[in-house]
């Protein structure tokens, strides 16, 4: 028998054995119904007969593979990483909602009663063009759209101007209601919102205020070459930059650890000298200060994104400044804007320039300052710098006075002791005379009684 014939016989017997085994094997149980959600199915729920399928000679293998849906993976992780939405006391979450209104292609300025601050205080976020939504809460949305500004109409058409004013006023009143009533019936933002002081800058502690100033100055220092000169920066009339510069601690302007150590060493050495010599090292350290960087840092401006972009921003109103617009162009032509006003460039409601926003509500303002003098954020920071400088000056004067009086106190010590002894002798002499007078009258009273 040839080898080819023997191999064919072996294959034929294998086919017969497989057919006989399939006919004698018990019939498999019907497969279990597949659950409606395929993502819930687990390997245990799959019929074991599907795992080990024996191929018959005429059958074809199935290349399909059962895999869990990819959409189920992020859904599970997102549910576990969700943060609570109703946190009206959280200032960081309030600023996150307020930042969604930053894009000019989605939101335009609105009247104060329905501006972005009012919507953010009630849990709304800007999600589309003129559309706000309660993200993470009830999910309701409101389209905020007002007619065009009345200034665009012609002056002689007084009837249309009056009609447009009435329409805008009615819409503003309606949107004021929707800020609260636009939420769902069970939404917690419908019952309460953020406090009026949620937007206030945290400048109460001097160490925090000076730390924030140092961080902003250090960040903006990388844009020193792109900033306009100090002559092009407009400051408030009641602010003296040179005077305030002498009051700021020198370590505030250190842009590296080595510079901070040098400033600290220079700060310690003047304490051993007289009051006149203390001003010399401070003046030396302040000569290298970039006044343009300091001017922006004092009014809340900070570096925005990568320094190569040349952008400065405010972390309270999210206003952005393109610094290239205030510098002359490369071809020698004049800049787009001649000056940079550090106050006007903020939005109207920004606490850095708005005293009402920084103070909170009128009730809280009357409780804090009975006189009623509200201060904006930059004014509060200026007052903190002056108070810190005044305390350091008083402490230095008191230490110098105590050190100078030590010699005088030691010289006058012996004189004070002799004077005290003389007073003591005089007091004891008076006491003896009084006792003698009482002893003379004593026996007469005793005889009369006998």
UniProtKB/TrEMBL annotation:
Gene Ontology annotations for the cellular component aspect, listed alphabetically: nucleus
Positions of the UniProt region annotated as Disordered: 14-81, 253-286
Basic and acidic residues: compositionally biased ranges: 258-270
Domain of life: Eukaryota
Keyword Zinc: yes
Subcellular location: Nucleus
Pfam families noted in UniProt: NuBaID_C, zf-C3HC
Protein name: Uncharacterized protein
UniProt source species: Coccidioides posadasii (strain C735)
């Amino acid at each position: 028998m040839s080898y080819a014939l023997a191999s064919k016989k072996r294959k034929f017997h294998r086919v017969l054995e497989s057919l006989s085994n399939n006919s004698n094997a018990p019939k498999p149980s019907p497969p279990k119904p597949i659950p409606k959600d395929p993502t819930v199915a687990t390997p245990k729920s799959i019929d074991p007969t599907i795992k080990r399928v024996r191929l018959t000679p005429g059958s074809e293998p199935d290349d399909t593979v059962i895999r869990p849906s990819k959409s189920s993976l992020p859904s599970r992780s997102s549910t576990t990483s969700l943060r609570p939405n109703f946190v009206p006391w959280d200032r960081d979450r309030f600023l996150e909602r307020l930042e969604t209104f930053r894009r000019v292609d989605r939101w335009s300025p609105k009247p104060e009663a329905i501006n972005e601050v009012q919507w953010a205080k009630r849990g709304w976020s800007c999600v589309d063009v003129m559309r706000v939504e309660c993200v993470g809460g009830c999910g309701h949305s409101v389209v905020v759209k007002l007619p065009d500004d009345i200034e665009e109409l012609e002056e002689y058409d007084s009837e249309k101007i009056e009609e447009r004013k009435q329409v805008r006023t009615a819409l503003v009143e309606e949107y004021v209601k929707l800020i609260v009533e636009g939420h769902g019936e069970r939404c917690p933002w419908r019952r309460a919102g953020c406090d009026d002081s949620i937007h206030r800058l945290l400048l109460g502690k001097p160490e925090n205020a000076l730390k924030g100033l140092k961080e902003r100055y250090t960040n903006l220092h990388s844009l020193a070459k792109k900033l306009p000169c100090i002559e092009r920066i407009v400051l408030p009339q009641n602010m003296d930059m040179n005077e305030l510069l002498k009051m700021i601690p020198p370590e505030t302007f250190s842009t590296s650890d080595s510079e901070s150590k040098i400033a600290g060493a220079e700060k310690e050495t003047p304490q051993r000298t007289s009051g006149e010599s203390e001003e010399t090292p401070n003046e030396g350290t302040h000569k290298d200060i970039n006044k343009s960087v300091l001017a922006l840092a004092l009014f809340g401006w900070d570096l925005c994104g990568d320094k190569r972009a040349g952008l400065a921003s405010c972390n309270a109103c999210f206003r952005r400044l393109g610094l290239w617009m205030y510098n002359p162009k490369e071809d020698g032509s004049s800049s787009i804007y001649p000056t940079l006003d550090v106050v006007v460039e903020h939005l109207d409601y920004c606490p850095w320039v708005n005293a009402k926003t920084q103070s909170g509500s009128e009730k809280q303002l009357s409780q804090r300052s009975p006189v009623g003098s509200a201060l904006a954020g930059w004014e509060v920071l200026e007052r903190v710098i002056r108070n810190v400088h005044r305390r350091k000056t008083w402490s230095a004067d008191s230490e110098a006075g105590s050190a100078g009086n030590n010699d005088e106190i030691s010289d006058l010590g012996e004189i004070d002791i002799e004077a005290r002894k003389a007073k003591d002798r005089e007091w004891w002499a008076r006491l003896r005379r009084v006792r003698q007078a009482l002893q003379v009258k004593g026996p007469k009273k005793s005889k009369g009684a006998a």
